[in-house]
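Protein modeling request. Please complete all fields; requests missing the sequence field cannot be processed.
Requester role: graduate student
Desired output: 3D structure, token encoding
Chains: 1
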Amino acid sequence: MEWRDEGIILGTRRHGETSAILEVMTRAHGRHLGLVRGGRSRKQQPVLQAGNRVDVIWRARLDEHLGAFQVEPLDLNAARLFDSASAIYGLQTLAGHLRLLPERDSHERLYETLGLVIDHLDDPRAAGELVVRFEVMMLDELGFGLDLSECAATGASVDLAYVSPKSGRAVSRSAGEPWRDRMLALPAFLLGGTGLRADAAAIEDAFRLTGFFFSRHVYEPRGFGEPEARAAFLGALRRWQASPAAAGGESAA
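Delivered output (253 residues):
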């Protein structure tokens, strides 16, 4: 068995004295693991870092075997990402979400979006918005997608301000006002076609929204809580928002 694909490294772990088990999100073959012989060498270690985009060839005698990877670098993003707290925790959060998917299931749309998010993870001004959009996409891929297209009560597609915690559907401001204390806020930047950017309050509302549905449909049924990396990522965003860099319009974390 053999195939060749492009992938983004999610993580590695040691295997024996000289090798490593590589975890890669690939374009056509989904999240895939494989052995890299000599993966702990000085030559290979800089390549086998989370966030790097690589060309991989996978070989195995049978499809169900772990197999072995041959890896060549394409974009070495890791050095840039490791200088930013939001990027480090953001990347760990994205990898954690992708591990919720079955191994070797193709999710090309997620792969393309992952690459786009990684390009901007070291810019906290953009990272929060991009990661939460990725979470909305993940909920959809897991079968728990939010319906933000129209009001669940009236069918209206304007002035959508809430999301029903029961149905995951949008609700207009007028229809949801009597029950606003029971509703989840719907930040306007999550609505398609608005072109709006997110401020700090909108980012908090957005992560509260996706976090609610992750907890209900994913974390609690599987018996675990919110991943530490996600909480750390939000903490890094808050620290940046409170920093002089945010007030001055700088993008460094």
